[in-house]
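Design a sequence for this backbone.
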């Protein structure tokens, strides 16, 4: 994607919750094995409740997600009111789910077993992220991404994001790639997407096969490293979002969303999440 097209899962709209939720706390940020099929409603806590006993917390309203017989369903809902499209963008965006883990990883492997509805303009993202306000007021926004993008369902995308004060401008999309499926070539089918991460490299995979390896030395731009998670732990984030709000983002996402033909509720389904250490 180009410099104007990048947009992480909608952190800003839920920033207060994101900054205050640390789950097990800063003293316990090492990798711990984990597995869930989201069969228990208490797996995901409401952001207004105490999330300390749940492995995940929703940063979006309760109507944007549900625990069902299929697993965790996350919804992008049709915007309230009229939607007008101008210059490839919509002036009214649908509300969608963002769900964070309350635990952190300092290395390890996470596997997301997911499917995503294919609707041009919609992005489903399953990532590792450090998005917290630190003491100097700066927002850390390290990311390691798996993205299922509405520009086409036959490929899935990988990316990293690690801003540096030395950058004259953010390097949006500098490290993104499009990857193929070994079988059932559509993200509308369930696939297992994995991110393996340590201090030296990141390996993305799908359905048990490695798809991309990025080493720390591959992330240098003008002598500056952009390797995410180098100085802090990362947590899991699951989400679906409307990419129609900015011109570059909308183009990248295949948008804007045409709500005259799109479902009233667009769904990303998470069947399982596992963490290996």
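Sequence:
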């Amino acid at each position: 994607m180009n410099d104007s097209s990048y947009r992480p899962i909608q952190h800003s709209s839920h920033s207060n919750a994101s900054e205050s939720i640390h789950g097990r706390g800063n003293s316990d940020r090492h990798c711990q094995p984990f597995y869930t099929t989201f069969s228990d409603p208490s797996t995901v806590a409401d952001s207004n409740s105490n999330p300390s006993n749940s492995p995940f917390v929703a940063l979006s309203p309760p109507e944007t997600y549900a625990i069902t017989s299929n697993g965790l369903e996350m919804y992008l809902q049709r915007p309230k009111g009229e939607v007008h499209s101008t210059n490839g963008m919509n002036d009214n965006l649908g509300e969608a789910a963002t769900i964070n883990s309350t635990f952190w990883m300092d290395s390890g492997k996470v596997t997301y077993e997911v499917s995503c509805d294919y609707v041009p303009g919609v992005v489903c993202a399953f990532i590792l992220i450090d998005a917290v306000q630190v003491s100097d007021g700066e927002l850390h926004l390290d990311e390691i991404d798996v993205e299922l993008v509405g520009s086409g369902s036959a490929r899935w995308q990988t990316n990293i994001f690690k801003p540096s004060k030395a950058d004259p401008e953010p390097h949006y999309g500098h490290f993104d790639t499009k990857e193929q499926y070994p079988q059932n070539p559509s993200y509308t089918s369930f696939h297992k997407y994995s991110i393996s991460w340590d201090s030296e490299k990141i390996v993305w995979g799908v359905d048990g096969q490695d798809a991309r390896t990025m080493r720390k030395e591959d992330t240098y731009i003008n002598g500056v490293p952009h390797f995410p998670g180098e100085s802090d732990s990362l947590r899991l984030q699951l989400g679906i979002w409307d990419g129609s709000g900015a011109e570059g983002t909308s183009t990248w996402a295949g948008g804007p969303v045409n709500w005259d033909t799109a479902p009233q509720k667009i769904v990303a389904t998470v069947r399982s999440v596992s963490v290996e250490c």
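The domain at 12-276 is CATH 2.60.120.200 (Jelly Rolls).
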